[in-house]
């Protein structure tokens, strides 16, 4: 008997473009959500977009409340949940970079409430996905959470964000190459369920971003457009898969370990980009495609070395040798790398200098 079931949870309205922020109210009206919004934002994002979103809600006859969060923590998620209950909010709107969006996403999952994502930076694909990432104990990877009902990405605002956030978003997309490689390997070796559609979409998204690299330049608003579209596509791939597998393999495990070993030093996307150089080398060897990944990252102005990440060599080796331990996700790291193999890999790829 055929007994497969799948739920693909996707945003209904995705609005991307120059000056679309005021269309947030319209994109939400179409969703027929009941009640008033609770806007979850951060101090900077409030200035660049949050206040305007609140004013537009008021102009449309709503009574919005606001919570300003600074850190991605369960304490912040709890604060949002309590405020939503106290204010009797009907739905949540995350305005900002990855942190306020994750917090709104996680809170809406607990509250069983609709959630809308208004990214002010294109820093990674969490701004459009149904995955939430808040550190808990030793865990840094994402978990299933409420996907946004709508995404409103104003490229004028995103293009004005610090450039490194955009190059981090690019690198998060480029890392899809190795994530899919790891997923296919896990399918072949461990019979992990693989989705051809999600794998192909994720891989194509990385290819299209690299093919369009010429239009990704500091000061060009088109860059924000290209990167946001790629992040949406990557988020859809994760929704089709029902997991982060299409966009997260060993390069993400490496990055999650760096988040523990050297917290707050480098951006998520930049770390996974360097991780991708390393794991592509493991997949295809010295003559393989790792140089294409490195050159694509370098061309976009994303880091390709430990020094450019601002992370010391010892932390790179520690992350490489411990990354296989942190999640039940089979990758090219297998049962783990020993220290000499990790050092050889990191020096062969130029991520660290030979001692
Ligand atoms: N849910 C998921 O699947 C994923 C979640 N994450 C999480 O996302 C977080 C990192 O995301 P980020 O976006 O880097 O963090 P973030 O929300 O802290 O933003 C980074 C910085 O950019 C500033 N910023 C944002 N937009 C701006 C604008 N338009 N103009 C000026 N400044 C602006 C913010 O104020 C902040 O200082 C981490 O907590 C990480 O764990 C990372 C990857 C995937
Ligand atoms: O960052 C992600 C995809 O780009 C999410 O991956 P994780 O599930 O490893 O956190
Ligand atoms: Zn990522």
Please characterize this protein's 3D structure:
The chain has helices at residues 24-29, 43-59, 74-86, 98-111, 155-160, 163-174, 176-190, 196-211, 221-241, 250-261, 268-284, 290-300, 306-309, 313-322, 339-348, and strands at residues 13-17, 37-41, 65-68, 91-96, 114-119, 131-132, 143-144, 150-154. The chain is α/β, with parallel strands linked by helices. It has a 6-stranded parallel β-sheet. Strands 6-7 form a two-stranded antiparallel sheet. α2 links the parallel β2 and β3. α7 (176-190) crosses α11. The radius of gyration is 20 Å and the shape is globular. It starts with 12 loop residues before the first strand and ends in a 7-residue tail after the last helix. The model has no long low-confidence stretch (mean pLDDT 97). Residues 124-126, 131, 133, 141-142, 172, 244, 247-248, 252 line the site of 1,3-dihydroxyacetonephosphate. Residues 42, 44-45, 48, 72, 96-99, 102, 120-121, 123-124, 126, 129, 131-133, 142, 157, 160-162, 165, 267-268 line the site of 1,4-dihydronicotinamide adenine dinucleotide.
């Amino acid at each position: 008997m055929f007994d497969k079931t799948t739920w693909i949870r996707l945003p209904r309205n995705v609005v991307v473009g120059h000056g679309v922020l005021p269309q947030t109210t319209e994109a939400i009206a179409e969703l027929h959500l009941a009640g008033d919004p609770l806007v979850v934002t951060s101090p900077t994002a409030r200035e660049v977009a949050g206040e305007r979103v609140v004013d537009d809600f008021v102009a449309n006859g709503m009574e919005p409340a606001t919570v300003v969060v600074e850190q991605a923590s369960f304490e912040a998620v709890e604060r949002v949940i309590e405020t939503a209950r106290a204010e009797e909010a009907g739905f949540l709107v995350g305005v900002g970079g990855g942190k306020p969006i994750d917090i709104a996403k996680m809170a809406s999952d607990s509250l069983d409430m609709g959630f809308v994502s208004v990214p002010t930076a294109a820093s990674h694909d969490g701004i459009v996905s149904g995955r939430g990432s808040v550190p808990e104990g030793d865990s840094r990877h994402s978990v299933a959470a409420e996907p946004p009902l709508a995404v409103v990405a104003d490229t004028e605002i995103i293009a004005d964000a610090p450039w490194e956030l955009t190059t981090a978003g690019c690198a998060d997309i480029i890392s899809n190459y190795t994530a899919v490689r790891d997923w296919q390997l896990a399918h072949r070796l461990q019979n992990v369920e693989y989705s051809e559609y999600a794998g192909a979409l994720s891989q194509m998204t990385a290819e299209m971003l690299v093919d369009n690299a010429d239009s990704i330049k500091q000061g060009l608003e088109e860059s924000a457009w290209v990167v946001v579209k790629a992040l949406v596509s990557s988020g859809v791939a994760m929704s089709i898969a029902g997991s982060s597998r299409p966009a997260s393999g060993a390069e993400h495990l490496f990055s999650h370990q760096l988040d523990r070993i050297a917290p707050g030093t480098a951006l998520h996307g930049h770390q996974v980009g360097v991780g991708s150089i390393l794991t592509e080398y493991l997949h295809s060897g010295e003559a393989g495609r790792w140089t294409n990944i490195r050159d694509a990252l370098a061309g976009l102005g994303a880091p390709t070395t430990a020094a450019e990440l601002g992370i010391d060599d010892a932390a790179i080796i520690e992350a490489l040798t411990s990354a296989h331990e942190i999640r039940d996700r089979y990758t090219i790291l297998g049962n783990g790398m020993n220290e000499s193999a990790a050092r050889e890999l990191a020096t062969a790829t130029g991520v660290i200098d030979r001692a």
